[in-house]
Design goal:
252 residues, alpha+beta, Immunoglobulin-like, 2 domains, 4-stranded antiparallel sheet, 3-stranded antiparallel sheet, elongated
Length: 252
Protein backbone atom coordinates (compact mmCIF):
# COMPACT_ATOMS: atom_id res chain seq x y z
CA UNK A 1 0.00 0.00 0.00
CA UNK A 2 1.45 3.36 -1.02
CA UNK A 3 1.22 6.77 0.67
CA UNK A 4 -2.17 7.50 -0.94
CA UNK A 5 -3.70 4.41 0.65
CA UNK A 6 -4.12 2.40 -2.55
CA UNK A 7 -2.83 -1.12 -3.06
CA UNK A 8 0.17 -1.34 -5.31
CA UNK A 9 0.64 -4.62 -7.16
CA UNK A 10 4.24 -5.65 -7.62
CA UNK A 11 4.87 -7.94 -10.57
CA UNK A 12 2.31 -9.53 -12.87
CA UNK A 13 -1.22 -10.28 -11.73
CA UNK A 14 -1.98 -14.04 -11.41
CA UNK A 15 -3.42 -15.58 -14.54
CA UNK A 16 -6.27 -18.06 -14.72
CA UNK A 17 -3.73 -20.89 -15.10
CA UNK A 18 -1.91 -19.67 -11.98
CA UNK A 19 -5.16 -19.84 -10.04
CA UNK A 20 -5.84 -23.37 -11.33
CA UNK A 21 -2.38 -24.54 -10.28
CA UNK A 22 -2.78 -22.91 -6.88
CA UNK A 23 -6.07 -24.71 -6.38
CA UNK A 24 -4.56 -28.01 -7.54
CA UNK A 25 -1.67 -27.63 -5.08
CA UNK A 26 -4.19 -27.82 -2.25
CA UNK A 27 -4.64 -31.51 -3.10
CA UNK A 28 -1.02 -32.10 -2.04
CA UNK A 29 -1.65 -30.85 1.48
CA UNK A 30 -0.35 -33.32 4.11
CA UNK A 31 -3.78 -34.30 5.42
CA UNK A 32 -5.12 -34.99 1.91
CA UNK A 33 -2.02 -36.96 0.93
CA UNK A 34 -2.38 -39.11 4.03
CA UNK A 35 -6.09 -39.56 3.31
CA UNK A 36 -5.29 -40.85 -0.18
CA UNK A 37 -2.76 -43.32 1.21
CA UNK A 38 -5.36 -44.57 3.70
CA UNK A 39 -8.03 -44.94 1.00
CA UNK A 40 -5.65 -46.78 -1.33
CA UNK A 41 -4.58 -49.21 1.40
CA UNK A 42 -8.21 -49.84 2.37
CA UNK A 43 -9.24 -50.51 -1.24
CA UNK A 44 -6.26 -52.81 -1.73
CA UNK A 45 -7.14 -54.72 1.45
CA UNK A 46 -10.62 -55.35 0.09
CA UNK A 47 -9.25 -56.37 -3.32
CA UNK A 48 -6.83 -58.87 -1.78
CA UNK A 49 -9.60 -60.39 0.34
CA UNK A 50 -11.96 -60.71 -2.64
CA UNK A 51 -9.17 -61.95 -4.88
CA UNK A 52 -8.19 -64.71 -2.48
CA UNK A 53 -11.82 -65.82 -2.18
CA UNK A 54 -12.24 -65.90 -5.95
CA UNK A 55 -9.04 -67.88 -6.46
CA UNK A 56 -10.27 -70.53 -4.07
CA UNK A 57 -13.83 -70.53 -5.43
CA UNK A 58 -12.60 -71.01 -8.99
CA UNK A 59 -10.59 -74.03 -7.87
CA UNK A 60 -7.23 -72.49 -8.85
CA UNK A 61 -5.87 -73.43 -5.46
CA UNK A 62 -8.15 -76.42 -4.79
CA UNK A 63 -6.64 -79.49 -3.16
CA UNK A 64 -7.96 -81.92 -5.78
CA UNK A 65 -6.46 -79.90 -8.62
CA UNK A 66 -3.10 -79.80 -6.83
CA UNK A 67 -3.17 -83.53 -6.13
CA UNK A 68 -3.94 -84.55 -9.69
CA UNK A 69 -1.75 -81.94 -11.40
CA UNK A 70 2.02 -81.88 -11.90
CA UNK A 71 4.27 -81.48 -8.87
CA UNK A 72 5.33 -77.93 -9.77
CA UNK A 73 1.70 -76.76 -9.53
CA UNK A 74 1.91 -77.08 -5.75
CA UNK A 75 4.86 -74.67 -5.71
CA UNK A 76 2.91 -72.19 -7.85
CA UNK A 77 -0.09 -72.39 -5.53
CA UNK A 78 2.08 -72.00 -2.42
CA UNK A 79 3.81 -68.98 -3.96
CA UNK A 80 0.48 -67.34 -4.84
CA UNK A 81 -0.86 -67.94 -1.32
CA UNK A 82 2.30 -66.51 0.23
CA UNK A 83 2.10 -63.39 -1.94
CA UNK A 84 -1.58 -62.93 -1.09
CA UNK A 85 -0.84 -63.29 2.61
CA UNK A 86 2.00 -60.75 2.44
CA UNK A 87 -0.16 -58.33 0.47
CA UNK A 88 -2.98 -58.69 2.98
CA UNK A 89 -0.67 -58.10 5.93
CA UNK A 90 1.04 -55.07 4.39
CA UNK A 91 -2.27 -53.48 3.36
CA UNK A 92 -3.62 -53.92 6.89
CA UNK A 93 -0.41 -52.52 8.39
CA UNK A 94 -0.64 -49.47 6.13
CA UNK A 95 -3.98 -48.60 7.77
CA UNK A 96 -2.45 -48.42 11.26
CA UNK A 97 -1.19 -44.93 12.26
CA UNK A 98 1.83 -44.38 14.49
CA UNK A 99 1.11 -44.03 18.19
CA UNK A 100 2.81 -41.29 20.16
CA UNK A 101 2.47 -37.86 21.76
CA UNK A 102 2.37 -34.83 19.50
CA UNK A 103 2.29 -31.16 20.50
CA UNK A 104 -0.35 -29.58 18.26
CA UNK A 105 1.27 -26.16 18.54
CA UNK A 106 4.67 -27.41 17.36
CA UNK A 107 4.42 -26.96 13.60
CA UNK A 108 7.73 -28.69 12.95
CA UNK A 109 6.57 -31.72 14.93
CA UNK A 110 3.22 -31.79 13.14
CA UNK A 111 4.91 -31.53 9.75
CA UNK A 112 7.38 -34.26 10.65
CA UNK A 113 4.55 -36.52 11.83
CA UNK A 114 2.69 -36.13 8.53
CA UNK A 115 5.85 -36.79 6.52
CA UNK A 116 6.63 -39.92 8.52
CA UNK A 117 3.05 -41.22 8.18
CA UNK A 118 2.87 -40.58 4.45
CA UNK A 119 6.24 -42.22 3.84
CA UNK A 120 5.76 -45.26 6.12
CA UNK A 121 2.16 -46.03 5.27
CA UNK A 122 2.63 -45.17 1.61
CA UNK A 123 5.56 -47.59 1.31
CA UNK A 124 3.51 -50.35 2.95
CA UNK A 125 0.57 -49.76 0.60
CA UNK A 126 2.89 -49.69 -2.41
CA UNK A 127 4.55 -52.96 -1.37
CA UNK A 128 1.13 -54.54 -0.79
CA UNK A 129 0.09 -53.55 -4.31
CA UNK A 130 3.23 -55.09 -5.79
CA UNK A 131 2.66 -58.34 -3.87
CA UNK A 132 -0.96 -58.49 -5.05
CA UNK A 133 0.08 -57.91 -8.67
CA UNK A 134 2.67 -60.68 -8.39
CA UNK A 135 0.04 -63.04 -6.95
CA UNK A 136 -2.26 -62.29 -9.90
CA UNK A 137 0.60 -62.88 -12.32
CA UNK A 138 1.51 -66.17 -10.62
CA UNK A 139 -2.03 -67.53 -10.76
CA UNK A 140 -2.48 -66.24 -14.31
CA UNK A 141 0.68 -68.01 -15.45
CA UNK A 142 -0.46 -71.40 -14.09
CA UNK A 143 -2.88 -72.21 -16.98
CA UNK A 144 -0.20 -71.32 -19.54
CA UNK A 145 2.33 -73.52 -17.78
CA UNK A 146 -0.21 -76.35 -17.69
CA UNK A 147 -0.74 -76.01 -21.44
CA UNK A 148 3.00 -76.18 -22.04
CA UNK A 149 3.28 -79.16 -19.71
CA UNK A 150 0.40 -80.96 -21.43
CA UNK A 151 2.09 -80.48 -24.81
CA UNK A 152 4.40 -83.37 -23.94
CA UNK A 153 1.61 -85.62 -22.61
CA UNK A 154 1.77 -89.22 -23.72
CA UNK A 155 -0.92 -90.96 -25.74
CA UNK A 156 -2.56 -93.45 -23.38
CA UNK A 157 -5.80 -95.42 -23.33
CA UNK A 158 -7.42 -97.71 -20.76
CA UNK A 159 -9.94 -100.41 -21.70
CA UNK A 160 -11.89 -102.63 -19.31
CA UNK A 161 -14.42 -105.42 -19.80
CA UNK A 162 -16.45 -107.63 -17.46
CA UNK A 163 -17.87 -110.75 -19.03
CA UNK A 164 -20.52 -112.74 -17.18
CA UNK A 165 -20.83 -115.84 -19.36
CA UNK A 166 -19.90 -119.38 -18.36
CA UNK A 167 -16.41 -118.20 -17.38
CA UNK A 168 -16.88 -114.75 -15.75
CA UNK A 169 -13.74 -112.66 -15.93
CA UNK A 170 -12.51 -109.10 -15.73
CA UNK A 171 -10.01 -107.81 -18.28
CA UNK A 172 -7.93 -104.67 -18.20
CA UNK A 173 -5.66 -103.25 -20.88
CA UNK A 174 -3.43 -100.19 -20.88
CA UNK A 175 -1.77 -99.01 -24.09
CA UNK A 176 0.49 -95.97 -24.53
CA UNK A 177 2.65 -94.42 -27.24
CA UNK A 178 4.99 -91.44 -27.70
CA UNK A 179 6.73 -92.35 -24.47
CA UNK A 180 10.15 -91.08 -23.42
CA UNK A 181 12.97 -93.56 -23.07
CA UNK A 182 12.85 -95.50 -19.81
CA UNK A 183 9.14 -94.88 -19.14
CA UNK A 184 7.23 -97.43 -17.07
CA UNK A 185 3.55 -98.15 -16.43
CA UNK A 186 2.03 -99.52 -13.24
CA UNK A 187 -1.48 -100.88 -12.81
CA UNK A 188 -3.29 -101.76 -9.61
CA UNK A 189 -6.62 -103.59 -9.56
CA UNK A 190 -8.86 -103.84 -6.52
CA UNK A 191 -12.06 -105.85 -6.12
CA UNK A 192 -14.89 -104.84 -3.80
CA UNK A 193 -17.68 -106.90 -2.29
CA UNK A 194 -20.00 -106.14 0.63
CA UNK A 195 -17.85 -103.25 1.85
CA UNK A 196 -14.55 -105.15 1.80
CA UNK A 197 -11.69 -104.54 -0.65
CA UNK A 198 -9.10 -106.99 -1.95
CA UNK A 199 -5.97 -106.16 -3.97
CA UNK A 200 -5.91 -108.56 -6.91
CA UNK A 201 -3.14 -107.18 -9.10
CA UNK A 202 -0.13 -104.87 -8.89
CA UNK A 203 2.16 -104.99 -11.91
CA UNK A 204 4.65 -102.89 -13.87
CA UNK A 205 5.76 -102.91 -17.50
CA UNK A 206 8.53 -100.99 -19.28
CA UNK A 207 8.22 -99.10 -22.55
CA UNK A 208 9.59 -100.79 -25.65
CA UNK A 209 12.33 -99.50 -27.91
CA UNK A 210 9.56 -98.04 -30.11
CA UNK A 211 8.42 -95.85 -27.17
CA UNK A 212 5.27 -97.92 -26.73
CA UNK A 213 3.93 -100.17 -24.00
CA UNK A 214 1.02 -102.49 -23.40
CA UNK A 215 -0.16 -103.91 -20.12
CA UNK A 216 -2.94 -106.50 -20.25
CA UNK A 217 -4.50 -108.32 -17.26
CA UNK A 218 -7.19 -111.00 -17.15
CA UNK A 219 -8.76 -111.94 -13.82
CA UNK A 220 -11.05 -115.00 -13.72
CA UNK A 221 -13.79 -115.50 -11.16
CA UNK A 222 -15.19 -112.00 -11.55
CA UNK A 223 -18.65 -113.12 -10.43
CA UNK A 224 -17.35 -113.27 -6.86
CA UNK A 225 -17.17 -109.45 -6.67
CA UNK A 226 -19.46 -106.44 -7.03
CA UNK A 227 -17.01 -103.88 -8.40
CA UNK A 228 -13.50 -103.53 -9.78
CA UNK A 229 -11.39 -100.40 -9.29
CA UNK A 230 -8.35 -99.81 -11.49
CA UNK A 231 -5.53 -97.25 -11.09
CA UNK A 232 -3.02 -96.87 -13.93
CA UNK A 233 0.05 -94.63 -13.79
CA UNK A 234 2.79 -93.94 -16.34
CA UNK A 235 6.08 -92.35 -15.21
CA UNK A 236 9.35 -91.42 -16.87
CA UNK A 237 12.72 -92.79 -15.75
CA UNK A 238 13.01 -90.00 -13.13
CA UNK A 239 9.68 -90.73 -11.50
CA UNK A 240 7.76 -87.83 -13.05
CA UNK A 241 4.12 -88.72 -13.61
CA UNK A 242 3.20 -88.60 -17.30
CA UNK A 243 -0.30 -90.02 -17.11
CA UNK A 244 -2.72 -91.22 -14.45
CA UNK A 245 -6.16 -92.70 -14.87
CA UNK A 246 -8.70 -94.32 -12.58
CA UNK A 247 -11.54 -96.58 -13.68
CA UNK A 248 -14.42 -98.10 -11.75
CA UNK A 249 -16.41 -100.97 -13.27
CA UNK A 250 -19.58 -102.26 -11.64
CA UNK A 251 -20.88 -105.79 -12.01
CA UNK A 252 -23.06 -106.04 -15.12
Amino acid sequence: MNATGTVEIVGKAPTEQDRMLEKASEEFAPEKSLERVHSSAKALLQSVTVGGTLFTALGLLAGERLRDGPSWLLAVAAGALALLALSLGLAAWALVPSVGKLAAGDLNAVGGWYQEQIKRRGNKARAAGIMFALALATVGAAPLLLLLDDADEVEAAVATAWTSDQQPKFTFKLTAAALPEGATAQAKIFAEKAGSTAALYDGTVNASAESKLELAVELPGADAYDRFVVAATIEDDKGKQLHHENATVNKP
